[in-house]
Amino acid sequence: MKKIATIIILLFSFTLIHAQNLKARIKIDIERKIGAIDTLIYGNFTEHLGRCIYGGIYDPKSSQANEDGFRKDVIDAANNLGVSIIRYPGGNFASGYHWEDGIGQKANRPKRKDLAWGAIETNEVGTDEFMKFISKSKAQPYICVNLGTGTIEEARNWVEYCNAPAGLYYSDLRVKNGHPAPYNIKYWGLGNEMDGPWQMGHKNAEDYSKFALEAAKLMKWSDDKIKLIASGSSNYGADWISWNRTILTELRNQIDYISLHHYVGNSDSSHKKFMTATLFTDKVIKITEGLINEVRSRYKTDRPIYIAFDEYNVWYRSWVEKQLEEHYNLQDALVIAEFLNCFIRNAQIVKMANMAQLVNVIAPMMVTNDKLWTQTIYFPLQLFGKNCFGESVSAFVDGDTYDVGDQKGIPYLDVSTAYNGSKDELIINVVNRSEDKTVETNIQNQFGMLADKANVAEVNSKSIYDENNEKEQKVKTVSKQITLKGNEFTYSFQPHSFTQIIIKIKK
Ligand code: AHR
User: Fold this and answer.
1) Domain boundary among 366, 387, 408
2) Structural domain span for residue 100
């Protein structure tokens, strides 16, 4: 009798637990291509701010320093992250920066107050030092010029210093400073967040466009191989759509990208709401893509213009007094995976993205003394940056949803899928937004045959509030292999997780 009662209780609890599971369906067809995934979406950013440059990438006193004073552990960790491009020198800092302060004999370089962040800039690191750092990393450089307090001539001189062969005033200066070969820096930003009143030299859309157009002309006449990125929206309280429309209209014949920025936070301490933060990112991308199409068709131009999402991250706890040293938890890592899912789903238009920033300052890695430790957000970034290449392919996702505030029907699963033809690999990236429920998901493949094994990597931890620190790494990637049979399988996505499944496809 006792035995039967136990069995009934066990069966009852099993049914109860099972009934609590959420359900979803993902149908993937690798023939439904969205666009090529540009590896530049795995970019990053280093700004003269807090401990990002000084005490971050550069620290000659550290035992980790190489012969040029750059930390080897930071370079290795960036390479292990798959960082493809690094934006420099800011950010807000760029709008007050005069690049000639940072070249030549270090002893002669001026000390100035950086009005963006209030620190004293020693100019110990400048263009040539940054390029030394870049030469040790696997990333390429991306320079943002000063269109705040700077001049158009200063911007074009910087291009000549970096890219012209010896024989001109500025290229000869580079040679004199010990760098005979041109750096050939391809990507150049036309100012930073010029739509923000917090920006030094902030302008309205018309004034910025006129100024940026003249800078662009001179910069391209100095080197016609460079690619230019216009300063798009970062200030979403204002009329950001007309900002983007004006600059796209006025700069359409010069620019190759429009930059977008978006930072998100969880000030309401609502997990459900926080997990919807990147829906706005998606909206900004879609609207801007529409504006690009509008301008291109109105002016009958075939020149492509893409989106460079060159600042994104979670940032809401640490402002200037804490030097932006944000400590990330598991929730934040899930949001970063959602940002990347969003870029992959919009791969036809988002051709560059830069997490802000690389080290210490709202960053995936922190350094203390001579050690480096990885924050929670390092792990989803790494899975994307190391594995998610090829073509973004569309996935049909159906399943349980939730409501939060005014937002209705938020899918528990946030999904992106890719097909890497060079390896015959299908890559499935899934965030389970639920804090406490597993999502039992039926995954169907519609073109070719799935191999009988899949590699599964999961970023997770016990609690959404778990953080990493110098001593303990609670949030990390755990990998396993699963066995499949046929073209359909069921996978249970764990609560508050990011999962990447990689499967070979036999065509
Ligand atoms: O990344 C930190 C700051 O955020 C950048 O300097 C600025 O561009 C943005 O507002």
Assistant:
1) 387
2) 38-387
CA trace torsion 70, 74, 77, 83 (10° rounding): -70
Alpha-carbon distance 77 to 364, whole Å?
10
CA distance 399 to 118: 49
Q: Is residue 105 part of a domain?
A: yes
Q: Identify whether 186 is part of a domain.
A: yes
> CA 113 to CA 121: how far, in whole Å?
6
| Residue 91 CA, ligand 1 centroid: distance in Å | 5
Which residue's CA is minimally distant from atom 1 of ligand 1? 356
Number of domains within the chain: 2
| Global pTM exceeds 0.90 | yes
Across the 507 residues of the chain, what is the mean pLDDT of every consecutive 10-residue run?
A: 56 52 97 98 98 98 97 98 98 98 98 98 98 98 98 98 98 98 98 98 98 98 98 93 98 98 97 98 98 97 96 97 96 98 98 98 95 98 98 98 97 98 98 98 97 98 98 97 97 98 94
Whether 6 is covered by a domain: the verdict is no
Please check whether residues 397 and 326 belong to one and the same domain: no
In a domain, 10, yes or no: no
Residues with CB under 6 A from ligand 1: 47, 90-92, 192-193, 311, 356-357
Instruction: Single out the residue in 368, 387, 406 at which a domain terminates.
Output: 387
236 neighbors 195 (Cβ within 8 angstroms):
no
